[in-house]
Amino acid sequence: MPAVSALRRDLDRAGYYPELVADVLDVALADEDVVAHLVLPETTLDDVELRRHLTVLVLTGTRLVVAHVDDVPANTEHSAGDAAATTEAVPLSQVRSVGLTHVVADPARYRSGRSRPSALTLAVSWGSISRVDLEPASCDDPHCTADHGLSGSLVADDVAVRVSAAAEGADAVRTAVKFARLLSRATARAAR
Question: Is 35 exposed, middle or buried (0-12, 13-18, 19+ CB in 10 A)?
């Protein structure tokens, strides 16, 4: 199945405004061929309402296209609410890092080539967005009341997605691992 057809099938399966998502991706892809993709729907329930979110990562031969789609709550102007769809196209040569966290259940029984992670977190950084985490600085003296200022870290926070076998199924984790491998390979080539 051609990659674009597989992407469309996964958008339809996610069921979150597939026509809208396909159209905004079409604009961002600008007729470039799809190498691989990852479609991650997420539904959360806060104190008041149900919120849906969709993240789509699309790898082409030259770029990583990232799409985020969110519900915008109803208001006085739009009683049905809106959806906001944002895309960003990042040249592979500008991707700074591809970070992977593999979660493995019962690691003592792990067998190379046969065991699979139960979850995978994929974090991709290209320097577009950074987050500053600050906390009060302190010293070792438990009786000290001086203000030692703040300490913290600057963390790249462009996109991070987590896929879990418990939530999305083992096939979704395998798909995420495959996508991560292809993205890692593509960014390594682009860095040369």
Answer: middle
- Strands of the sheet containing 50-60, edge to edge, are 34-45, 50-60, 63-72, 82-91
How far is it, in rounded angstroms, from Cα 112 to Cα 84?
A: 42
Position 118 scores a pLDDT of 95
H-run or E-run covering 45: strand 34-45
pLDDT in tens, 20-62: 999 999 999 999 999 999 999 987 777 777 788 999 999 999 9
Which of 37, 32, 33 has its CA nearest to residue 14? 37
Per-residue pLDDT tens digits for 69-102? 998 777 777 667 788 999 999 999 999 999 999 9
Instruction: Record the pTM.
Output: 0.81
Tell me how far CA of residue 32 lies from CA of 20, 28, 58, 91, 159, in angstroms. Answer: 19, 9, 11, 12, 22
Contact 35, 59 (CB under 8 A): yes
